[in-house]
Every structure is written in structure tokens, then in C-alpha cells.
Amino acid sequence: MEEEVVFNFLWKNPAPLKVLAFSWTLRLDRIPTRDNLDKRRLLDAEASRLCCFCESAVETSRHLFLHCQVTYKVWLRVMKFIEVSLLTPPNLSIHLSCWTNEVRGKKHKRSASIIWHVTVWVIWIRRNDRLLNNKAVEVDDIVEQKIKMLSWH
């Protein structure tokens, strides 16, 4: 039931369509993380399966967006920005549900939802920059220059 509510809520969000499409694909665990690529035998034998941010665990969707040391710091800064506090739940559907239920009022829930979608989108874009262009990952840059800016446009 919780999954269905989150799924319906996802498509009623005013975030850009490409961001929502990404969130939907992420929720279904169909994004090309290193783990998913490995399962489909699309990585060669020498390629790393570790998270390109922290290099301490296999890069799965749950690890990358919830449990990675780097992205965890991103979520903490974003939570501080919107003045909420959450424990990290076991999956992304529950994370989104908790994220939007933590705030009061329809307008604030809408804003929190936009920020959640933008945050996962920016994490993915920065992951790809790190992986493909070897760009350094700066938590402050991710939050200040990307997430806050994109959330309010």
C-alpha cells in the first residue's frame, strides 16, 4: 500500500518531467548503477563495482542514494536547510514518504517533494561527473550550487 501511495504521489509533483522519470526509474531500481550493470553483464571483469563516491561498498541504488558517506552528508545538509530531521530508512520509497510527511501543510509538502526529487537527480548527475569526468565531489557545491538552485527555479 505504501509503495502505491508513493508511486501515485511521484507523478503529481511539479518537478521537471526528466527528474520525475529518473525518480520513477530509481524507485524501480532500474538505473545503471555499477551493481545493475554487473547483473546484466555489461561491466568488464576488471571494472570496479564500488561506489565512485566513497569506494567502501558496492554501488547499488540504496547504497548510492541512502547509505554512501558522501550522499549521507548531502542529505544531512539538505535536511538542515529545510529544517527536518530523519533517520535513514531501508529504501527510497519509504525515504520519500518520510521526507514529505515530516513537513506540515500542502505547500511545504510540495516543496519538500520537489527538493527530494532534485536531490536524487543531482546526486545522480554528480555521480556521473565523478565516474565519467573524474570530477571531485564537494558536498557544499552539491547542496549550495545545485540542489538549492534547481529546487527554487
What does this structure look like?
The protein is mainly alpha-helical. The protein has one domain. The chain is built from 8 helices and no strands. It has helices spanning 2-11, 17-27, 34-39, 61-67, 69-82, 92-101, 106-133, 139-151. The longest helix has 28 residues, at 106-133. It is globular, with a radius of gyration of 15 Å.
Question: How would you sum up this structure in a few lines?
Answer:
By secondary structure, the protein is mainly alpha-helical. It has eight helices and no strands.
Approximate shape: globular
Tell me the number of helical segments per DSSP (H or I, 4 or more residues long): 8
E-strand count: 0
Q: Measure the end-to-end span.
A: 32 Å
Strand content: under 5%
Structural class: mainly alpha
Largest sheet entry: none
- Overall pLDDT score: 85
Order of helices and strands: HHHHHHHH
List keywords for this structure.
mainly alpha; 8 helices; 153 residues
Topology at a glance:
Layout: H1 2-11, H2 17-27, H3 34-39, H4 61-67, H5 69-82, H6 92-101, H7 106-133, H8 139-151
Helix pairs in contact: 1-6, 2-7, 4-5, 5-7, 5-8, 6-7, 7-8
